Amino acid sequence: MSDAPRRHSLIEDAQGISFGAMMAALGVTILTHLGLVTGQTAGLAILIAYATGWSFAPVFFLINIPFYWLGWKRFGPSFTLKTFVAVALTSLLSAVMPGWISFDTINPIFGAVLVGAITGTGLLALFRHGASLGGVGIVALYLQDATGFLAGWAQLIFDAVLFTLALCLVDWQAVGYSFLGALVLNMVIAINHRRDRYIV
């Protein structure tokens, strides 16, 4: 009998990607309600939305389009299709969710931590089912393949620039809370997304 793990079925992938997108959209809904930001491509889309008054959903969807070609080259068609679905679902849900849920009081520190935990859980689900929320992570891995420059450093540099730009649009305290949320998110991923401990 083989000990090799079984691949996820189509229904399991659909459930996992739907869950991941829903958690990511809920995170964005809380984040934008509090006027906070985050890192990576979602953070760039939020900053553009804050600066222009456009809705996050179409900005996030459109900003990811150029990255699918790199995703196809780096990870193949299955990853690219799943990522497209995840991004589309996250965009759609983040557009409609403010009409489905409202908030009275959310402490910004707790809100930032909650967003980090929720979004990190959503990303874990997407990663486990061979998808992502696209964007900067794909470019970072592509650069690592092409030049040897570590993907983690590329993402860190991008986020450092992003949070610096955020100071032009939101106050320093909100950027501080946002950084706390991003730290929690990355800790969730770092501790739980490990191939040496967890299979599938």
TrEMBL record:
Keyword Iron attributed: no
PANTHER family linked: UPF0750 MEMBRANE PROTEIN YITT, UPF0750 MEMBRANE PROTEIN YITT-RELATED
Coiled-coil stretches: none
Gene Ontology cellular-component annotations: plasma membrane
Keywords (A to Z) from UniProt: Cell membrane, Membrane, Transmembrane, Transmembrane helix
Keyword Transmembrane on entry: yes
Recorded topology in the membrane: Multi-pass membrane protein
Protein source organism: Paracoccus zhejiangensis
Source superkingdom: Bacteria
InterPro entries per record: UPF0750_membrane, YitT
Primary location group: membrane
Annotated TM spans: 16-36, 42-71, 83-103, 109-127, 139-166, 172-191
Protein name (Swiss-Prot/TrEMBL): YitT family protein
Pfam family, one: YitT_membrane
Compartment(s) of residence: Cell membrane
